[in-house]
Amino acid sequence: MTLGNLRDLYQQTILEHYKKPKYKGKTNPVDRYQKGHNPSCGDTIELTLQLDESGDNITDAKFEGEGCAIAIASADLMAEAVKGKSVEEALEMVRRFQAMMKGEDEFPKEQRKLNVMQGVSQFPVRIKCANLTWHTLKAALESQASVESNGFISNEKEDG
Ligand code: ZN
What we know:
By secondary structure, this protein is an alpha+beta fold. It has helices at 3-19, 69-82, 87-101, 124-143; strands spanning 32-38, 43-51, 58-66, 152-154. It has one domain: Sufe protein. Chain: A (Alpha-Beta Complex). A four-stranded mixed β-sheet has the order 3-2-1-4, covered by helices on one side. Bound molecules: zinc ion.
């Protein structure tokens, strides 16, 4: 497969997740809620998580929102990837994704689907779109809020 074909494949995967997201909606119940906004593009993500009784594991993840193909595809891929993972593992994935956007890391074989977003790192204006959902996930896991009252976070001041 040539590099050009590989890039087409990545774009196709991103478009598929954008057009037919599998994880759109709200978890039931909502154990964590966080809204995230990326002002530089206008992307908005409302992320909901369902945790197990211990609160240490993510049993379900869903999102609602409006945004560009990169932001929505990234949210769908993220929800799929963190479902069934521990909170600790999910936070490690946030770190890894953000490093990948700087071209410094990539996901191992079991999570290689997330590497389709790797190409975005070559487009600095799009990095915030891809990072938004991960940034929102981190805030959701750290805030411990399950209601809308915690307002929304913005990644405007984030450096990447
Ligand atoms: Zn965007």
